[in-house]
Amino acid sequence: MSVVLDALETDGGSLTEVAQRTGLRLDVVRAAAAHLVRLGRVQRCELQFGCASGARCGDCTLACGARPDTLGR
Fold first, then answer.
1. How far apart are CA 60 and CA 34, in angstroms?
2. In whole angstroms, what is the distance from residue 56 CA to residue 70 CA?
3. Each residue's pLDDT tens digit, 30-48
4. Mean per-residue pLDDT, 47-72
5. How far apart are CA 60 and CA 52, in angstroms?
6. Helix axis angle, 2-10 relative to 26-39, nearest 10°?
C-alpha cells in the first residue's frame, strides 16, 4: 500500500498509470487505493472527458474554440 501511496503522491495520474509505474497488477492498485480513500489518506477524483451533458463545444475554457492558438481552424 505504501508503494501506491508514494506513486500517487509523487506523480499522481490514473490507477492504470500507477500500476504501470509500480509494476503492480491493476486490481492490487485499485484495492490499495480504495483502502487509502477509506483511511482518508487520498481523495477519489472523477475525471471527465468530453463535454458535460447538454453543453456545447466551446462552452468551457478547454474547448478548442476557446483557445487562441486554434482560432480559425
1. 31
2. 17
3. 999 999 999 999 988 766 6
4. 55
5. 9
6. 80
